[in-house]
Amino acid sequence: MTDGLEADVEGADDVAQQRDELATRVRTHAGRIARELAVLQGGDYGQKTFTTDAGSWTLKYEAGDVQYLRYEPQSGSEIYAVSSKQPPEPDALERAMTDYDAFVAAFNEYVRSFEDLFADVPETFPEVESTAELAAQRDRTLERIREVCTAMAGQLHRYDGDYGTYATTIDGTRWELKWDGDAVSYLRVGGEDGIYLLSQYGPPPAPEVRRLVDDVPAFVTAFNDHVRDLEADLETVAFESK
């Protein structure tokens, strides 16, 4: 009953070694395809499926290397010819390799399909109009606005504290000036989601400056009226010492 236990067991080392050597060659070769695919598609990662007569191959790549190469035959289970986990079974890899040349041919045909992609693209393009003068006009306008708002900030600082805000409504739109000392922190038109005509960041779009600049005199007039009202109120205050 125990005679079978004495029989020789065939070693699998040679088969495994051959499988590993083949898997290494496949990974190296598929890695070249992955790098070419990354160059063509742009980006560090992605995947692409190529169809052959016998099935389909999906190559996934990241950072110029193969993540996996999956073969899905028309019949039978899918086979990972290249995987970041474990190598395929030897017989599975052998089945996949019978269609590998067709996969490479499909990839090559895919690349060749782009050969005339840019044939009709012109070598030159129209001249681009400069925005330099428009930006300069905007900046000059903003500088005038900043000068008058700085003067307003100085007055506000003088009688209303080191920092704060002054707000009024011009044609139904809120205008708000925030000062810090004698400097302007911002001039905002239209509430919290409005346009910052003046701020510590970049300038607003030129069309917005043009749209709002005609209302700046009304804003300044409202401020002057506000100051005159304050002066009138102060004149009515009496203080008697005992």
Q: How would you portray this structure in words?
A:
This protein has 242 residues and is an alpha+beta fold. It has 6 helices and 8 strands, in the order αββββαααββββαα. The protein has helices at residues 13-41, 90-97, 100-112, 132-160, 206-213, 216-235; strands at residues 45-51, 55-62, 65-73, 79-82, 163-170, 173-180, 183-189, 195-198. The strands form 2 sheets. Strands 1-2-3-4 form a 4-stranded antiparallel sheet. Strands 5-6-7-8 form a 4-stranded antiparallel sheet. Strand 3 (65-73) and strand 4 form a beta hairpin. Helix 4 crosses helix 5. The longest helix has 29 residues, at 13-41. The termini are far apart. Mean pLDDT is 89; it is low at 7-12.
SSE series = HEEEEHHHEEEEHH
- Largest sheet strand order: 1-2-3-4
Based on CA atoms alone, the radius of gyration comes out at 38 Å
How much helical structure, as a percent, in the residues?
40-55%
The main sheet comes to: 4 strands, antiparallel
Counting DSSP H or I runs of 4 or more residues, the number of helices is: 6
Strand content: 15-25%
Average pLDDT confidence is 89
Spatial shape: elongated
Structural class label? alpha+beta
For the termini, the CA-CA separation is 129 Å
Name the poorly predicted regions: 7-12
Number of strands: 8
